[in-house]
Sequence to fold (75 residues):
Amino acid sequence: MNTSPRKFLYKILISAAMVLACITFTPLVIPYEIHEPTLFFLPYTLWTGLVVALLFVLLTFLATHVHRGKEEDES
Fold:
């Protein structure tokens, strides 16, 4: 089974997105009744949610550049 490096990298990015989605709903990101520490006067849950959202945007950006669906279909 010989896969191209782009397909392998795309699978890695998909796996990272799935792991990030699972981590999002754990107590690591959404702890029960914890508001500290704060960062720029934002509670813990809010700034970790912003970091998770930015990571999803980054993963999506990278995946769209790695996966060139139309180019593969035409050849």
About this structure: The radius of gyration is 17 Å. The mean pLDDT is 83. The first helix runs from residue 5 to 24.
